[in-house]
């Protein structure tokens, strides 16, 4: 999945409404620049095994996924936020979930309507998440 390559699913996500978040065929986490989770879709719930109600309003880096509070993820997002000319950034990341270890493809997308970031998450092996 690559926004730079013109993947329509990602470009549509730039202007997504909360109601459309669950329709995305990849995990989607919407956060404020401080890391507070404002949106969390069903795909991500299946991938992470964390219920939406349990994560909304919490800090993604401190409360939900502390393994991302490192330069390779949070630091990369902070650098991305400082660059005004880029709408997306993609990289691979390893998540040591309690239920399984998963390598995922992460894409940061700068949402157009709000001062928020959409973190798109897709398993690197392309397998759908299990519940």
Give an overview of the whole structure.
The protein is of the alpha+beta class and about 130 residues long. The protein has a single domain, classed as 2-Layer Sandwich (Beta-Lactamase). The protein contains 5 helices and 5 strands; from the N terminus they run αββααααβββ. A 5-stranded antiparallel beta sheet has the order 2-1-5-4-3. The longest helix is centred in the middle third of the chain and has 12 residues.
Question: Which descriptors would you attach to this protein?
Answer:
single chain; 131 residues; alpha+beta; Beta-Lactamase; 5-stranded antiparallel β-sheet; 5 helices; 26% helix; disordered N terminus
The residue-averaged pLDDT reads: 83
Can you tell me the number of structural domains?
1
Could you tell me the CATH topology label.
Beta-Lactamase
CATH class: Alpha Beta
Helical run tally: 5
What is the CATH architecture descriptor?
Answer: 2-Layer Sandwich
Q: How are the strands of the biggest sheet laid out side by side?
A: 2-1-5-4-3
The assigned structural class equals alpha+beta
Order of helices and strands: HEEHHHHEEE
How far apart lie the N and C ends?
A: 23 Å
Strand residue percentage: 25-35%
Note poorly predicted spans.
Answer: 1-6
* Fraction in helix: 25-40%
Q: What overall form do the CA principal axes indicate?
A: globular
- The count of DSSP E runs of length 2 or more, i.e. the number of strands, is 5
Give the biggest sheet: 5 strands, antiparallel
CATH superfamily: PAS domain
Radius of gyration: 13 Å
